[in-house]
User: Fold these one by one.
Assistant:
Number 1:
Amino acid sequence: MTTIPAQLLHRRLAPLTRALILATALCAGPAFALTLSPPKPAAQAPAYAGIIGLEERLLAPQPWIAQLPDADKLILDRAAIAAQNARMRQLDTSIIDLRALPATLPEVLVREHIDGISRLPTRPLYDVQGKRVGADQLRAISDNLALERIPASRPIQYGLVVHRAALRAFPTALRVFSSQGDTDIDRFQESALFPGDAVAVLHESADGQWVFVASERYAAWMEKRFIGIGSAGQVFGYGAQGPYRVITAGKAFTAHTPEEPRVSNLQLEMGLRVPVLADWPAMEPVNGQQAHAGHVIQLPVRNDDGSLGFAPALLPRSQESSDDYLPLTQANLITQAFKFLGERYGWGHSYDTRDCSGFVSEIYRSFGVLLPRNTSAQAISPALNRVPFTDKDSKAKRSDAIAGLQVGDLVYIPGHVMMMLGDANGLTWVIHDTSGGSWYGADGKRVHASLNGVSVTPLQPMMASDTASYIDRITNIQRIRPQDTK
């Protein structure tokens, strides 16, 4: 591997730190100091399940697809998606080029990136029992960073993730919360990585149980037991050639196998592409099971010595998958989004689910489209067709933008993203993964709803505060379309 001079490396990796500092924007809910006049309650269609304008029929993809004039028209073909992804990797500073990392990393850069995310908050934190996290606990967590053990230069290691793994701000499984009784938003939870994700290992914790890793879209701490260390050739060669299966379900699971527990009941997320062992003999069992009712796939595993290995696994045909990424069409965007409907909201991909930015990322990943991890980066990505807004923009401009939304457009307010579905009952509708929501009822009182999951809601009535609507607080609209179109 070519060694990159430290100064050049710093320029390449500094955006990673900036992205990590912004990593708190994971859809806890909007917070934005904008005050406008409260909306006047309007006569609305009868509410279903308390949501203004909602009908039960709208909780399925078919009505939304049926109203589209050309639902199956390609938005981007495979070549255009490849070009879009290349543009994303070139222009968006939140995307990390693992192959560009040098063979050795200088101490200053490793420390900089850890410091960028592993900064203990000064506000009080509480554990799952509601007890305040003490100074001794926080000190032990900080000591486990082992910053004093970072060498002057460290050889880089590569690996593949072998099991869905949490990415944490600190090398600890301790869940911490801002208030007693609220145990949904773990302030140390950042994101998650999935089987087959490539990472670069930058550092190890004092207890030897955690590693600080950089993946293409994020860098944080993960448990060491969920990674197999291999050569660059092994890591970047995994899945480089087909045939493949692409997971098109919200989540899928490999077949149970007591013979090979490392690939038994393994959760695979929407958009994961795994290689198929097409030459597997028809009558040879896969981990004790004949393969005709499944696809024989190859998955990375961690050997006893921590090294990377590979093992065959069965992906049952009952688990939705495709032989390639799905065609990027409006119909498929809607269909894929509804596969998450009702799933519990998971801050930073907690609960083996996902948050708002993960929700839209994984929808688009089923088409092979790369998006940044967090709303903060997605919303301003220069690689997409961005329509920005400021607090000086008029209601008319915002209303015109809402009227011009297309299926699949991503609408951002501070800390949150929604995907446009279509129009119904005189309203514009979105599907989004949200921890809450509010609107004014017919009686003029503000309704607070614990949506706490993937939900279908109208956009116009949604309120971010007593006086500001979601539309008032839109910061950006992003569109995945050919670059010469709007």
Number 2:
Amino acid sequence: MIADFFKRLTAAQDQPLTETDARLALAALLVRAARTDGHYAPSEIAHIDRILQTRYGLGQDAAQALRKEAEEAESSAPDTVRFTRAIKDAVPYEDRTAVIEALWQVVLADGDRADQENALLRVTASLLGVSDIDSNSARKRVEAAS
């Protein structure tokens, strides 16, 4: 199933991603952000589940199942570009800034902001076409809400 997902991510642009694929791409990107510092904290996992529940109107079990599938996809993905391309193609700019905000929520969930996480968020924002100013604003909104 994951192999089919990656085939769809790398397919010709005339084949739009399904909503299911876009969800999995976002979930995998959230998992990647959480794992970037080498510590996949329970607080980060809980944030991922809550983000998926809220964003997609999922129950707890469905959000956890999506996250577990995303963990497998993230482990199999050679790079972040596949996920960001899928999101960029499927999501309008305003919602991509919300994706960056969700990523900051996950990164900051464990109370530590590692250099690797900062680097991933800079690259991810760029790949999503989100400006540095909007990414910084998203981080500040998350920090203010904490």
Number 3:
Amino acid sequence: MADEKRIDPATGTEIKHHEWDGIQELDTPLPRWWLWTFYATILFAVGYMIAYPAIPMIDRATGGMLGWSSRGALDRELAARERQIAPIRKAIAETPVTALPGRPELMQQAVEGGRAAFRVHCVQCHGSGAAGSKGYPNLNDDDWLWGGDLAAIEKTITDGVRNPGHDATRQSLMPAFGKDQLLTAAQVDDVVAHVRAISGQDRPGAASRRGDRVFADNCAVCHGPAGKGNRALGAPDLTDAIWLYGGDAGTIRETVWNSRHGVMPRWDDKLDKATIRMLAAYVHSLGGGEGDAGR
């Protein structure tokens, strides 16, 4: 009959009443060790749900009888770490940035702290290696719009560049010579030729010689007669091979025609003094930092 038990003679185990392509299944019981392990995991799961946060609710999970949470554990670890480094941060905040090089151990701690802060706050614009990109300065070279000594870097980080409504911000304004019709299109082309010539990219010619006079009348007041720039005004050196937006003729023409007004955030309203000072120390350490007296 269909409900009659069939026993496998080799193992003495009951044969199940189904078959697939001639293959039959034995009703072999699970090993006791496996069953006890399975029961233990169930008990463990029930205990875990009671002791720890486990059951999702509308805006949070159940708290658990132990009152533990991963967020709380992280907060405690961060608080402990903050207590550990608080004396170092206090010493950095109380030490003038120009005095840090005279305290090598504190300077090194400031550099390492600045390295971490840079990865959080600065890589979005300057890149993970601080090499910058179009419109964002490379912080590894020795070309600085506003100065590359520790004090100048700290000032730039603190007050930013062209932050409206902040009187202490770095501020400069290049006219839009073409858009505002301060120069004709021909004069713009001539001054571009002049800049290309003084930067060593093109040979001097008739256009660059005409542009020399246009430059003297309109640009030298900020960039200097020789185009070497002026850090007090944030005017770049036009004679080197370092360009913030690009040194090809088309890009220079766009700069002269429309001007550039890049903005760097001020950080004094977002970061504490110690963090700003650590960032200044780190940027200064990247390779392009200058002595306190500047170049």
